[in-house]
Amino acid sequence: MAGVEVRVEGLSKSFGRANIWSDVTLTLPPGEVSVLLGPSGTGKSVFLKTLIGLLKPERGSIVIHDTDLVRCSESRLYELRKLFGVLFQDGALFGSMNLYDNIAFPLREHTRKSESEIRDIVEEKMAMVGLTGDEDKLPGEISGGMRKRAGLARALVLEPEIILFDEPDSGLDPVRTAYLNQLIIDLNAQTDATFLIVTHDINTAQTVPDNIGMLYRKHLAMFGPREVLLTSEEPVVAQFLNGRREGPIGMSEEKDTAQAAREMAEAGELEGLPPLKPQLQPSTGVGERQAVARRRERVLQMLHTLPPAAQQAIRDSYAADQVAVDPPTGPIAAPQPLPRKRSAGPLVRDEPTEVIGGYDPGYDDPTSRDRDRS
Length: 374
Known about the structure:
By secondary structure, the chain is an alpha/beta fold. It has a single domain, classed as P-loop containing nucleotide triphosphate hydrolases (Rossmann fold, 3-Layer(aba) Sandwich). The protein contains twelve helices and ten strands. Strands 6-7-8-3-9-10 form a six-stranded mixed beta sheet. It has a four-stranded antiparallel beta sheet with strand order 2-1-4-5, covered by helices on one side. Strand 9 (211-216) and strand 10 (219-225) form a beta hairpin. Helix 3 crosses helix 4 (115-128), helix 3 (99-110) packs parallel to helix 5 (144-156) and helix 4 (115-128) packs across helix 5. This is ABC transporter ATP-binding protein MceG.
């Protein structure tokens, strides 16, 4: 099992007249862990369902292995879906089946493997998620954390190249969430699959991913190396990462600009971003993540295009490992500010996309700044 690149270009999705998001463009680097953040109701779960072909977008493309999932035949889409493993919020287990049969279900449904082969695979995946000995238990007899792990084992049995996590931390206490985060990093080290996690958990966003994206105002405000968002001074980022009331985000996604300005003025000087935490490393004995070396090479190539604070955070984190971080184009340079969107409504095609902190990668490839997104 090895990761695969997922390239999304100009993706737009609506339900009737209700626009969910528009012109989403990003690339999930192969084998890396990416996180998608955003206020409630911004369509993060809709994005996951669109990514695997359960929902059809109005515009755009999703390219995997040189095939566009949006325009391919139904038979080809069926085959490509086998590249995905999905962990749903509640585990989505069959209540009448024990854990063994739940995890074996995809193998029996989509392969012609013998029962002895299935048993070997199921036992291996259950061991990977720490469920050895629980094969005969029913979903109703176990905790929420165990159901999550069983759902994850089931997502792994077909050896997927891409694994999607839809709020894996929902319903879990902070301790179980920490264990699950470590499990995700260890699984990435063992499988080298491409991971995409939708979450609201700030600790997960700070410590797990290689890349972070944020959906806001019906578009992807940014997507890139984790250091970009975690060092951004943009008000919406600071508000979200601090979990405070004051700022652009309101109960119904966003506030009126004047209201947000009044609140910020009344609040005075607010605390900035939380301290930048180190990224989780694989557990002892698991081995190194193959994505680490690939990420370093990729980030060093684009380092000069990132905001100064992100550049410095990358330099500091790599310094401990004695990794050279001087890009061929020279020292840190402040990025040029880009035009900002004037309204809070749906995007229109001839209007510049709002970006966070003046940084608008497209979204992990520097050359994509010149790419036509129409």
